[in-house]
Amino acid sequence: xxxxxxxxxxxxxxxxxxxxxxxxxxxxxxxxxxxxxxxxxxxxxxxxxxxxxxxxxxxxxxxxxxxxxxxxxxxxxxxxxxxxxxxxxxxxxxxxxxxxxxxxxxxxxxxxxxxxxxxxxxxxxxxxxxxxxxxxxxxxxxxxxxxxxxxxxxxxxxxxxxxxxxxxxxxxxxxxxxxxxxxxxxxxxxxxxxxxxxxxxxxxxxxxxxxxxxxxxxxxxxxxxxxxxxxxxxxxxxxxxxxxxxxxxxxxxxxxxxxxxxxxxxxxxxxxxxxxxxxxxxxxxxxxxxxxxxxxxxxxxxxxxxxxxxxxxxxxxxxxxxxxxxxxxxxxxxxxxxxxxxxxxxxxxxxxxxxxxxxxxxxxx
Length: 365
Description:
By secondary structure, the chain is mostly helical. Helix content is 76%, strand content 0%. Helix 7 packs antiparallel against helix 8 and helix 14 (325-341) packs across helix 15. The longest helix is centred in the N-terminal third of the chain and has 71 residues, at 2-72. The N and C termini lie far apart (112 Å).
């Protein structure tokens, strides 16, 4: 009987030992798998970081090339154009004798205050007055990259940034004392805030901020209103047609626009006036749009026919000031139509195309 118990005890011990060994083997295998998974995840993360560094290095190179083009093709403030008008109002701000109702250019008071702030910080020199435009140019390139990246990936973003960095308008206006580039930078920021993929809480905050920004843009360049209206119209239609694929809250954006209008009203009330009079004051002034449809047709003919360019452009009084817009607008219209006609185009690209066509039609008439 004792031998039976001893044998049973040995079997039990062996079973326990085997179970313990099997447990240890399972733990070791689990640890090995976790280590391998961690190594794989680390390798993937390192590869992603390496790709990101390459992308940002290429973006930095594009920005450096754009700055080089800006200096190489340096134009500076034009003494016979709008630049001197803005500079005069900047002086009025610095000496404390300014009103947004002094003239056509004074209504863009937010941009004038930005220039005045740079002059106050860095002194009365060409560097201080051109710094906002250079910062705006670089901001447009960066935001164009992120907009393109969010739509079609980093490759599309870098290509878009390269096109923006080599645009004659962006490069040429980077050293002019004009509000066009700052307005373009704000429009790019507003567009990025709309199409950026975001969480629910972030959606509310960015929608609110976009509404405020959309109104304050008017004090940089009043023509920005057409971009804001086009963007709002596209978002409204996409929601009404139940095809909205962009995380954006129109409710919070409307609240932001009210806050922006309240800010403008508070400032204008210092001059015993308001937003209505401010808008009427601007609408009473006339301005000539350089990018008319007739001009673009003539410019396209000049581009396709070298004789028409050298003979007609120089002899017919067609201004070379608008020449760089020719190819940009022509290809921009064709690209927008192609995107809208293509079924596989993303909602973001279609939204950009509609906004682009609305803005071009506004400029043309």
